[in-house]
Amino acid sequence: METPSLLLIDDEIQYSELTKEYLEMKGCKVMLKHDGQAGLDAFKLHSFDLCVLDVKMPKKDGFTLAEEIKEINEMTPIIFLTGQSLKEDKIKGLTLGADDYLTKPFSMEELYLRIKAILKRVKVQEKSVVIDQYQWGDSKFDLELRELTVAGEKIKLTSIESKLLKLFCDNQNKVLTRDAAMMGIWGDEEHYRGYSLNVYVGKLRKFLKPDSSVEILNLHGEGYKLVYKQSVAG
Amino acid sequence: MIDLSLLKNLMSGDEKLVARFILIFKTQVPAQVRQLPGLCENQEWEELSTSFHSLKTQFSYLGITEFAEQMREMEENVDNGDTSSIAAGISQFIKAFDQFMQAEFPENSL
Cα-atom radius of gyration of chain A, to the nearest Å? Predict the structure, then answer.
Protein backbone atom coordinates (compact mmCIF):
# COMPACT_ATOMS: atom_id res chain seq x y z
CA MET A 1 0.00 0.00 0.00
CA GLU A 2 1.31 3.48 -0.86
CA THR A 3 1.75 5.90 2.05
CA PRO A 4 -1.83 6.86 2.96
CA SER A 5 -2.39 10.50 3.79
CA LEU A 6 -4.78 10.91 6.72
CA LEU A 7 -6.49 13.86 8.38
CA LEU A 8 -7.08 13.16 12.09
CA ILE A 9 -9.28 15.62 13.97
CA ASP A 10 -9.69 15.11 17.70
CA ASP A 11 -9.93 17.66 20.51
CA GLU A 12 -8.14 15.38 22.99
CA ILE A 13 -4.85 17.16 22.33
CA GLN A 14 -2.42 14.89 24.13
CA TYR A 15 -4.09 11.53 23.54
CA SER A 16 -4.60 12.20 19.84
CA GLU A 17 -0.83 12.68 19.56
CA LEU A 18 -0.50 9.04 20.62
CA THR A 19 -2.93 7.97 17.90
CA LYS A 20 -1.01 10.07 15.35
CA GLU A 21 2.30 8.51 16.39
CA TYR A 22 0.90 4.99 16.20
CA LEU A 23 -0.51 5.53 12.70
CA GLU A 24 2.76 7.11 11.58
CA MET A 25 4.62 4.12 12.97
CA LYS A 26 2.40 1.99 10.72
CA GLY A 27 3.48 4.00 7.69
CA CYS A 28 0.69 6.57 7.41
CA LYS A 29 1.20 10.29 6.88
CA VAL A 30 -0.99 12.04 9.45
CA MET A 31 -2.05 15.67 9.81
CA LEU A 32 -3.58 16.31 13.25
CA LYS A 33 -6.04 19.11 14.06
CA HIS A 34 -7.91 19.73 17.30
CA ASP A 35 -11.17 21.38 16.30
CA GLY A 36 -13.67 21.06 13.49
CA GLN A 37 -12.94 24.42 11.87
CA ALA A 38 -9.17 23.85 11.79
CA GLY A 39 -9.89 20.42 10.30
CA LEU A 40 -12.04 21.88 7.54
CA ASP A 41 -9.39 24.50 6.72
CA ALA A 42 -6.77 21.75 6.45
CA PHE A 43 -9.05 19.66 4.24
CA LYS A 44 -9.49 22.59 1.84
CA LEU A 45 -5.74 23.16 1.58
CA HIS A 46 -4.43 19.60 1.34
CA SER A 47 -5.31 16.29 -0.21
CA PHE A 48 -6.17 13.32 2.04
CA ASP A 49 -6.98 9.68 1.35
CA LEU A 50 -9.16 9.38 4.46
CA CYS A 51 -10.43 11.49 7.40
CA VAL A 52 -10.75 10.32 11.00
CA LEU A 53 -13.12 12.60 12.90
CA ASP A 54 -14.02 12.85 16.56
CA VAL A 55 -17.74 13.56 16.96
CA LYS A 56 -17.86 15.90 19.96
CA MET A 57 -15.49 18.79 19.22
CA PRO A 58 -15.37 22.54 19.80
CA LYS A 59 -16.22 25.07 17.07
CA LYS A 60 -17.64 22.44 14.72
CA ASP A 61 -18.80 18.95 15.65
CA GLY A 62 -17.74 15.90 13.67
CA PHE A 63 -21.13 15.40 12.00
CA THR A 64 -21.25 18.97 10.65
CA LEU A 65 -17.64 18.68 9.54
CA ALA A 66 -18.36 15.41 7.72
CA GLU A 67 -21.21 17.07 5.80
CA GLU A 68 -18.92 19.90 4.73
CA ILE A 69 -16.13 17.51 3.74
CA LYS A 70 -18.57 15.46 1.66
CA GLU A 71 -19.76 18.68 -0.05
CA ILE A 72 -16.16 19.35 -1.11
CA ASN A 73 -15.32 15.76 -2.01
CA GLU A 74 -18.04 13.16 -1.76
CA MET A 75 -15.59 10.31 -2.30
CA THR A 76 -13.41 11.01 0.77
CA PRO A 77 -13.77 8.09 3.21
CA ILE A 78 -14.59 9.07 6.80
CA ILE A 79 -14.25 7.18 10.08
CA PHE A 80 -15.93 8.63 13.17
CA LEU A 81 -14.35 8.30 16.61
CA THR A 82 -16.60 8.93 19.53
CA GLY A 83 -16.98 8.52 23.23
CA GLN A 84 -20.69 8.16 22.66
CA SER A 85 -22.06 4.73 21.98
CA LEU A 86 -25.61 5.83 21.33
CA LYS A 87 -27.25 3.91 18.51
CA GLU A 88 -28.76 7.15 17.12
CA ASP A 89 -25.30 8.69 16.78
CA LYS A 90 -24.04 5.64 14.97
CA ILE A 91 -26.97 5.77 12.59
CA LYS A 92 -26.53 9.51 12.05
CA GLY A 93 -22.83 9.05 11.30
CA LEU A 94 -23.43 6.28 8.81
CA THR A 95 -26.30 8.23 7.21
CA LEU A 96 -23.91 11.09 6.62
CA GLY A 97 -21.80 8.76 4.54
CA ALA A 98 -19.26 7.64 7.12
CA ASP A 99 -17.45 4.49 6.12
CA ASP A 100 -16.92 3.29 9.66
CA TYR A 101 -17.49 4.17 13.28
CA LEU A 102 -15.29 3.43 16.30
CA THR A 103 -16.38 3.95 19.88
CA LYS A 104 -13.81 5.12 22.44
CA PRO A 105 -11.96 3.42 23.96
CA PHE A 106 -10.79 1.91 20.69
CA SER A 107 -7.78 -0.23 19.89
CA MET A 108 -5.09 1.56 17.90
CA GLU A 109 -4.55 -1.58 15.86
CA GLU A 110 -8.26 -1.85 15.10
CA LEU A 111 -8.31 1.74 13.88
CA TYR A 112 -5.32 1.08 11.62
CA LEU A 113 -6.81 -2.14 10.24
CA ARG A 114 -10.11 -0.41 9.51
CA ILE A 115 -8.31 2.42 7.72
CA LYS A 116 -6.37 -0.13 5.69
CA ALA A 117 -9.54 -2.05 4.79
CA ILE A 118 -11.37 1.08 3.65
CA LEU A 119 -8.48 2.29 1.54
CA LYS A 120 -8.19 -1.13 -0.07
CA ARG A 121 -11.92 -1.10 -0.87
CA VAL A 122 -11.69 2.41 -2.33
CA LYS A 123 -8.81 1.35 -4.56
CA VAL A 124 -10.78 -1.63 -5.89
CA GLN A 125 -13.80 0.62 -6.56
CA GLU A 126 -11.62 3.11 -8.42
CA LYS A 127 -10.25 0.36 -10.61
CA SER A 128 -13.72 -0.99 -11.38
CA VAL A 129 -15.05 2.33 -12.70
CA VAL A 130 -12.55 2.70 -15.53
CA ILE A 131 -14.49 4.13 -18.44
CA ASP A 132 -13.94 2.34 -21.74
CA GLN A 133 -16.79 3.79 -23.80
CA TYR A 134 -17.40 7.39 -24.76
CA GLN A 135 -20.22 8.94 -26.68
CA TRP A 136 -21.06 12.35 -28.06
CA GLY A 137 -23.80 13.31 -30.48
CA ASP A 138 -24.10 10.49 -33.02
CA SER A 139 -20.48 9.48 -32.53
CA LYS A 140 -18.98 6.97 -30.13
CA PHE A 141 -15.61 5.55 -29.18
CA ASP A 142 -15.14 2.02 -27.89
CA LEU A 143 -11.73 1.79 -26.26
CA GLU A 144 -11.73 -1.98 -25.91
CA LEU A 145 -12.59 -2.55 -29.59
CA ARG A 146 -10.45 0.44 -30.63
CA GLU A 147 -13.39 1.52 -32.74
CA LEU A 148 -14.54 5.05 -33.46
CA THR A 149 -17.95 5.58 -35.03
CA VAL A 150 -18.51 8.99 -36.60
CA ALA A 151 -21.69 9.85 -38.53
CA GLY A 152 -22.49 6.14 -38.78
CA GLU A 153 -19.09 5.21 -40.20
CA LYS A 154 -16.91 2.79 -38.21
CA ILE A 155 -13.20 3.53 -38.13
CA LYS A 156 -10.66 1.05 -36.72
CA LEU A 157 -8.05 2.92 -34.67
CA THR A 158 -4.46 1.92 -34.04
CA SER A 159 -3.27 1.40 -30.47
CA ILE A 160 -1.67 4.86 -30.38
CA GLU A 161 -4.72 6.58 -31.90
CA SER A 162 -6.90 4.90 -29.25
CA LYS A 163 -4.63 5.95 -26.40
CA LEU A 164 -4.55 9.52 -27.65
CA LEU A 165 -8.33 9.72 -28.12
CA LYS A 166 -8.87 8.31 -24.63
CA LEU A 167 -6.57 11.00 -23.21
CA PHE A 168 -8.61 13.64 -25.02
CA CYS A 169 -11.91 12.15 -23.76
CA ASP A 170 -10.66 11.92 -20.16
CA ASN A 171 -9.62 15.56 -20.35
CA GLN A 172 -12.73 16.85 -22.05
CA ASN A 173 -12.68 20.65 -22.42
CA LYS A 174 -9.39 20.79 -20.53
CA VAL A 175 -5.87 21.44 -21.73
CA LEU A 176 -3.97 18.27 -22.61
CA THR A 177 -0.31 19.28 -22.57
CA ARG A 178 2.08 17.83 -25.13
CA ASP A 179 4.16 16.31 -22.34
CA ALA A 180 1.11 14.66 -20.73
CA ALA A 181 0.03 13.29 -24.11
CA MET A 182 3.48 11.87 -24.85
CA MET A 183 3.73 10.39 -21.35
CA GLY A 184 0.26 8.87 -21.71
CA ILE A 185 1.04 7.28 -25.07
CA TRP A 186 4.73 6.38 -25.00
CA GLY A 187 5.56 6.70 -21.32
CA ASP A 188 8.18 9.37 -21.92
CA GLU A 189 8.46 13.00 -22.93
CA GLU A 190 11.13 12.60 -25.59
CA HIS A 191 11.01 15.52 -27.96
CA TYR A 192 11.54 13.38 -31.03
CA ARG A 193 8.02 12.06 -30.35
CA GLY A 194 6.65 15.54 -30.90
CA TYR A 195 6.39 15.21 -34.66
CA SER A 196 4.62 11.84 -34.31
CA LEU A 197 2.18 13.37 -31.88
CA ASN A 198 1.31 16.07 -34.41
CA VAL A 199 0.63 13.39 -36.99
CA TYR A 200 -1.69 11.42 -34.68
CA VAL A 201 -3.58 14.54 -33.63
CA GLY A 202 -4.01 15.35 -37.31
CA LYS A 203 -5.39 11.88 -38.00
CA LEU A 204 -7.89 12.13 -35.16
CA ARG A 205 -9.01 15.55 -36.44
CA LYS A 206 -9.63 14.03 -39.85
CA PHE A 207 -11.62 11.11 -38.36
CA LEU A 208 -13.75 13.46 -36.25
CA LYS A 209 -14.33 16.07 -38.98
CA PRO A 210 -17.84 14.84 -39.97
CA ASP A 211 -19.00 15.47 -36.37
CA SER A 212 -19.44 19.23 -35.95
CA SER A 213 -20.04 18.91 -32.17
CA VAL A 214 -16.41 18.08 -31.49
CA GLU A 215 -13.13 19.80 -32.32
CA ILE A 216 -9.48 19.40 -31.32
CA LEU A 217 -7.93 22.82 -30.79
CA ASN A 218 -4.23 23.69 -30.89
CA LEU A 219 -3.18 25.77 -27.87
CA HIS A 220 0.08 27.41 -28.82
CA GLY A 221 2.87 26.60 -26.36
CA GLU A 222 0.56 24.47 -24.19
CA GLY A 223 -0.87 21.52 -26.08
CA TYR A 224 -4.38 20.64 -27.24
CA LYS A 225 -7.94 20.77 -26.10
CA LEU A 226 -10.81 18.53 -27.18
CA VAL A 227 -13.88 20.73 -27.16
CA TYR A 228 -17.45 19.57 -27.50
CA LYS A 229 -20.81 20.85 -26.48
CA GLN A 230 -21.95 17.89 -24.34
CA SER A 231 -20.29 15.37 -22.06
CA VAL A 232 -18.90 12.34 -23.90
CA ALA A 233 -18.37 9.85 -21.08
CA GLY A 234 -20.76 6.95 -21.51
CA MET B 1 -9.05 -0.46 40.03
CA ILE B 2 -7.00 0.37 36.93
CA ASP B 3 -7.11 -2.32 34.27
CA LEU B 4 -3.68 -2.07 32.70
CA SER B 5 -4.23 -5.14 30.56
CA LEU B 6 -7.08 -3.32 28.79
CA LEU B 7 -4.90 -0.27 28.14
CA LYS B 8 -2.04 -2.46 26.87
CA ASN B 9 -4.45 -4.19 24.55
CA LEU B 10 -5.84 -0.89 23.26
CA MET B 11 -2.31 0.42 22.69
CA SER B 12 -1.47 -2.76 20.76
CA GLY B 13 1.02 -3.85 23.43
CA ASP B 14 3.24 -0.82 22.88
CA GLU B 15 4.78 -0.19 26.31
CA LYS B 16 5.91 3.31 25.39
CA LEU B 17 2.41 4.35 24.39
CA VAL B 18 1.03 2.82 27.60
CA ALA B 19 3.55 4.73 29.75
CA ARG B 20 2.79 7.98 27.94
CA PHE B 21 -0.94 7.45 28.32
CA ILE B 22 -0.56 6.96 32.08
CA LEU B 23 1.62 10.05 32.32
CA ILE B 24 -0.93 12.17 30.47
CA PHE B 25 -3.69 10.73 32.64
CA LYS B 26 -1.84 11.52 35.88
CA THR B 27 -1.26 15.14 34.92
CA GLN B 28 -4.38 15.96 32.93
CA VAL B 29 -7.21 14.23 34.77
CA PRO B 30 -6.73 15.68 38.30
CA ALA B 31 -6.59 19.20 36.81
CA GLN B 32 -9.79 18.58 34.85
CA VAL B 33 -11.52 17.15 37.91
CA ARG B 34 -10.57 20.22 39.99
CA GLN B 35 -12.30 22.47 37.43
CA LEU B 36 -15.65 20.69 37.63
CA PRO B 37 -17.14 22.48 40.71
CA GLY B 38 -16.29 25.93 39.30
CA LEU B 39 -17.81 25.16 35.91
CA CYS B 40 -20.96 23.93 37.64
CA GLU B 41 -21.16 26.94 39.96
CA ASN B 42 -20.77 29.33 37.00
CA GLN B 43 -23.32 27.33 35.02
CA GLU B 44 -20.89 26.86 32.15
CA TRP B 45 -22.85 23.87 30.95
CA GLU B 46 -21.22 23.40 27.57
CA GLU B 47 -17.74 23.41 29.08
CA LEU B 48 -18.91 21.11 31.83
CA SER B 49 -20.39 18.66 29.34
CA THR B 50 -17.11 18.70 27.38
CA SER B 51 -15.15 17.98 30.58
CA PHE B 52 -17.42 15.08 31.55
CA HIS B 53 -17.09 13.76 28.02
CA SER B 54 -13.30 13.93 28.08
CA LEU B 55 -13.05 12.37 31.55
CA LYS B 56 -15.43 9.59 30.55
CA THR B 57 -13.15 8.61 27.69
CA GLN B 58 -9.99 8.75 29.80
CA PHE B 59 -11.50 6.57 32.52
CA SER B 60 -12.73 4.12 29.88
CA TYR B 61 -9.23 3.60 28.52
CA LEU B 62 -8.06 2.53 31.97
CA GLY B 63 -11.07 0.31 32.55
CA ILE B 64 -12.35 2.48 35.40
CA THR B 65 -15.92 1.76 34.46
CA GLU B 66 -17.54 3.13 37.64
CA PHE B 67 -16.14 6.63 37.06
CA ALA B 68 -16.73 6.42 33.34
CA GLU B 69 -20.38 5.60 33.99
CA GLN B 70 -20.74 8.50 36.45
CA MET B 71 -19.26 10.87 33.86
CA ARG B 72 -21.58 9.53 31.17
CA GLU B 73 -24.65 10.06 33.39
CA MET B 74 -23.68 13.59 34.36
CA GLU B 75 -22.81 14.50 30.76
CA GLU B 76 -26.17 13.21 29.62
CA ASN B 77 -28.00 15.14 32.36
CA VAL B 78 -26.22 18.38 31.48
CA ASP B 79 -26.91 17.87 27.76
CA ASN B 80 -30.58 17.32 28.58
CA GLY B 81 -30.75 20.46 30.76
CA ASP B 82 -31.23 18.43 33.92
CA THR B 83 -28.66 20.17 36.12
CA SER B 84 -30.37 19.99 39.52
CA SER B 85 -28.29 17.13 40.89
CA ILE B 86 -24.99 17.90 39.13
CA ALA B 87 -23.31 19.81 42.01
CA ALA B 88 -24.00 16.97 44.46
CA GLY B 89 -22.87 14.42 41.88
CA ILE B 90 -19.59 16.25 41.32
CA SER B 91 -18.93 16.54 45.06
CA GLN B 92 -19.53 12.83 45.58
CA PHE B 93 -17.40 11.95 42.59
CA ILE B 94 -14.45 14.09 43.74
CA LYS B 95 -14.35 12.29 47.11
CA ALA B 96 -14.17 8.92 45.40
CA PHE B 97 -11.67 10.21 42.83
CA ASP B 98 -9.31 11.52 45.55
CA GLN B 99 -9.37 8.11 47.22
CA PHE B 100 -8.68 6.47 43.88
CA MET B 101 -5.69 8.71 43.18
CA GLN B 102 -4.23 8.10 46.65
CA ALA B 103 -4.54 4.37 46.16
CA GLU B 104 -3.30 4.17 42.57
CA PHE B 105 -0.83 7.06 42.40
CA PRO B 106 0.21 7.88 45.98
CA GLU B 107 3.14 9.95 44.70
CA ASN B 108 0.69 12.05 42.74
CA SER B 109 -2.10 12.39 45.32
CA LEU B 110 -3.97 15.67 45.54
Answer: 23
CATH at A112: 3.40.50.2300
| Cα within 13 Å of Cα(B98), Cβ side | 7
Segments forming the whole domain that contains residue B100 = 4-108
Contact between B21 and A18 using a beta-carbon 8 Å cutoff? yes
Mean pLDDT of B39-53: 95
State how far residue B44 is from chain A, nearest Cα, in angstroms. 14
pLDDT in tens, A55-75: 888 788 899 999 999 888 888
Residues A14 and A108 in one domain: yes
Same domain, A137 and A86: no
Comparison of pLDDT for A137 and A116, the residue scoring more: A116
- In angstroms, the CA A6 to CA A20 distance is 9
Domain that holds residue A37: 5-128
Q: Closest chain B residue to A109 measured between Cα atoms?
A: B12
| Binary contact (B57, A108; C-beta < 8 A) | no
- For B51, nearest residue in chain A (alpha carbons): A12
**pTM of the prediction?**
0.67
Shortest alpha-carbon distance between residue A80 and chain B (Å): 15
Q: Dump pLDDT digits (tens) for B80-91.
A: 999 999 999 999
Among candidate residues A128, A148, A182, the one where a domain is terminated: A128
pLDDT band at A232 (very low <50, low <70, confident <90, very high): very low
Phi, psi (rounded to 5 degrees) for A175: -75, 130
Q: Does B45 touch chain A (CB under 8 A)?
A: no
SS3 A206: helix
Any chain A CB within 8 A of the CB of B108?
Answer: no
Specify the number of domains making up chain B: 1
Please determine, for residue B17, whether its predicted confidence score (pLDDT) is greater than 90: yes
H/E run at residue A141: strand A139-142
- Domain final residue, candidates A108, A128, A148: A128
Q: How many helices and strands in chain B, by DSSP H and E?
A: 5, 0
CB-based contact, A107 to chain B, within 8 Å: yes
**Residue A198 domain flag:** yes
